């Protein structure tokens, strides 16, 4: 029922989503924050509430901001539609396959990378996400981590490699706080 309001960029009546309504709140939050940034509305204003389709101002501070900031030029170029936002997420999520393939090929070998890619494509849970709109921000925090690991596994490691890896992991955290878990795992990897 909520999609009817999302497609028209209309305020969502609170009677339809009293309480937590799952995916839609996670999905619309970043989109609404990006729309607020796009229009330059103050976070706690009534205008900002309109762009966030009824979410309150403290919701804008409830998530890390990087995806919303990246989304602003996309919305400016292609429009503010929730459909555009969903397609942007689909394109981003589809990159998980080649990124994982390249990382595993670098660490192990081509055969292992192919088998892993095939298993990923057969995984209904993972494959369902790029080809649908049910995407959560924690999946996007994987990309900077993959790049960071790719740098760390380089044979020629220097201070610049560690700095770039750290910046990528910080970027992962700015996309979603789950990046802290990846940071801890990479730190342990570097110690060993």
Classify the secondary structure makeup into a structural class: mainly alpha
Shape: globular
Number of helices: 12
Q: Low-confidence parts, pLDDT < 50 over ≥5 residues? A: none
The largest pleated sheet is described as: none
Radius of gyration: 19 Å
In percent, how much strand structure appears in the residues? under 5%
Taking the alpha carbons of the first and last residues, their distance comes to 51 Å
Q: Please tell me the overall pLDDT.
A: 76
> What sequence of helices (H) and strands (E) makes up the elements?
HHHHHHHHHHHH
Number of strands: 0
Helix content: 55-70%
Q: What layout of secondary structure does this protein have?
A:
Elements: H1 2-7, H2 23-39, H3 46-51, H4 66-78, H5 82-94, H6 96-107, H7 110-122, H8 124-128, H9 137-140, H10 142-152, H11 159-175, H12 179-191
Helix pairs in contact: 2-4, 6-7, 6-10, 10-11, 10-12, 11-12
Structural notes for this entry:
The protein is mainly alpha-helical and 192 residues long. Helices cover 68% and strands 0% of the residues. The chain contains twelve helices and no strands. Helix 11 packs antiparallel against helix 12. The radius of gyration is 19 Å and the shape is globular. The model has no long low-confidence stretch (mean pLDDT 76).
